[in-house]
Amino acid sequence: MRSCRNITSLISQGLDKKLGLGERLTVRVHLMMCSRCRNFKTQSQFIRKTAQTYTQHIQDLAKRKS
């Protein structure tokens, strides 16, 4: 079994690109057993979505001022 450090790295990579089948399965199995990594994934997804929403909001404001 991979360490939490390896899994969190894969989770982060998975936000930017599609992981391979083996990597996705490894992460999924690990997440079934590890609440800390599940929390990391949830928080990472929240931060990513919030940053994207904020960026879009700033862009919309800039367009309105133009």
TrEMBL record:
Residues 4-38 form the Putative zinc-finger domain. It holds the Pfam family zf-HC2. InterPro entries: Znf_put. This is Zf-HC2 domain-containing protein.
